[in-house]
């Protein structure tokens, strides 16, 4: 029997995909008997107050007058050093390149020969937005190069990392994101067609998610048949979206439910999931919807074609094609038999390709590579 690992995980604690994936990896590793230390500036959204096998380390930043901005990267580094020394960490698994991979490199430099190995998982905008920005590109590229292993959730993001950061020779393991298929399982008894069509969207309400497109698609569906839209999440675009809903007179047809720790109840009653993003490295929200047997109408962009099978588990259309997405939604809602087949296929694809234990096996093999 192999000795359990001592794993440090660093992530952003937000509702975005990187924090969700990092926390779920930690929870999965803890259930397998590994000891997990999770570093973040706040308790991650998916981490319960008490999680067996996980020790949460809140990163506190001292705000001294000499600092123009609080030095989070250095505070994280110091905490990593302290925990690695006292707990003898085997691995530092950092999610999102900057600042987490940078802090891990600095911690290894302090620790020397006793430093844990660094595994960096890239999630998308850390490469396509932050990493490609000339201000951060050199440190992003360097921090990735200094990692002992690098992973991405999609082939698309692996290729973009090589291209945007000029890292063609860097080995990158593609390990997909995953869903706990027992938790995200369809359990629907309400018959289709006996109530308004239920459409759902989940995101952090940033411009890249194109949430106004969700509302426009829904408005097009509503012109042809009764329907209801649930918007889950919050973020900088929410005010703009609320204004659009009011301008279109949809206030009684659209629910803003804010950020939720558990979206399953809304997915359970959904007929379609809308994700018209202009960029997605993977699409965790789309995978969670498919695991619940909900077909996804999304943009044909980034890693989404690796998650959604067009015409089988959902529809993929060009970014900004509101008319096309509206037509696709109406066609599916008008054909309950086809929609039912697509629901079954969505669940089968999720289980077959993105099951949690298979993905965790991949990470454990990576952790034990050295």
Quote the distance from N terminus to C terminus: 17 Å
Proportion of strand residues: 15-25%
Classify the secondary structure makeup into a structural class: alpha/beta
Helical stretch count? 14
Name of the level-1 CATH class of the largest domain: Alpha Beta
- Main beta sheet strand tally, sense and closure: 7 strands, parallel
* Weakly predicted, low-confidence segments: none
How many strand elements? 13
Largest beta sheet: what is the strand line-up? 3-2-1-4-5-6-7
Q: Might you state the CATH topology name of the largest domain?
A: Rossmann fold
Bulk shape: globular
Q: Give me the Rg, rounded.
A: 21 Å
Helix content: 40-55%
Q: How would you name the CATH homologous superfamily of the largest domain?
A: Glycogen Phosphorylase B
Task: Note the run of SSEs as H and E.
Answer: EHEEHEHEHHEHEEHEHEHEHEHEHHH
Whole-number tally of structural domains: 2
Average of pLDDT: 94
Overall CATH architecture of the largest domain: 3-Layer(aba) Sandwich
């Amino acid at each position: 029997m192999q000795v359990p690992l001592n794993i440090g995980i660093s992530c952003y604690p937000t509702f975005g995909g990187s924090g969700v994936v990092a926390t779920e990896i930690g929870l999965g590793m803890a259930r397998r008997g590994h000891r997990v230390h999770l570093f973040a500036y706040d308790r991650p959204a998916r981490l319960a107050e008490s999680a067996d096998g996980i020790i949460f380390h809140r990163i506190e930043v001292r705000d001294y007058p000499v600092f123009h901005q609080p030095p989070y990267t250095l505070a994280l580094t110091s905490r990593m050093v302290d925990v690695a020394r006292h707990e003898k960490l085997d691995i530092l698994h950092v999610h999102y390149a900057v600042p987490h991979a940078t802090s891990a490199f600095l911690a290894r430099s302090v620790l020397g020969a006793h430093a844990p190995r660094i595994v960096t998982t890239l999630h998308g905008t850390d490469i396509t937005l932050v990493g490609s920005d000339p201000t951060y590109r050199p440190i992003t590229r360097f921090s990735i190069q200094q990692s002992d292993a690098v992973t991405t959730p999609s082939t698309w993001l692996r290729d973009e990392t090589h291209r945007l950061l000029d890292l063609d020779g860097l080995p990158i393991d593609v390990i997909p994101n995953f869903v706990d298929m027992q938790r995200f399982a369809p359990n629907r008894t309400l018959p289709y067609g006996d109530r308004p069509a239920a459409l759902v969207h989940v995101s952090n309400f940033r411009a890249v998610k194109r949430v106004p497109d969700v509302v426009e698609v829904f408005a097009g569906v509503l012109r042809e048949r009764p329907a209801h839209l649930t918007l889950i999440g919050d973020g900088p675009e929410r005010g703009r979206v609320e204004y659009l809903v009011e301008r279109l007179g949809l206030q009684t047809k659209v629910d803003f439910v804010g950020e939720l720790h558990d979206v399953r109840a809304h997915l359970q009653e959904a007929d379609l999931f809308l994700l018209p993003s202009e960029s997605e490295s993977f699409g965790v929200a789309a995978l969670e919807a498919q695991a619940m047997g909900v077909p996804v109408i999304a943009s044909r962009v980034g890693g989404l074609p690796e998650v959604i099978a067009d015409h089988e588990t959902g529809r993929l259309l060009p970014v900004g094609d509101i008319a096309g997405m509206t037509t696709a939604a109406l066609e599916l809602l008008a054909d309950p038999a086809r929609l039912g087949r697509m629901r079954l296929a969505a669940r089968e694809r999720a289980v077959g390709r993105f099951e949690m234990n298979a993905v965790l096996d991949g990470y454990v093999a990576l952790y034990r590579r050295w």
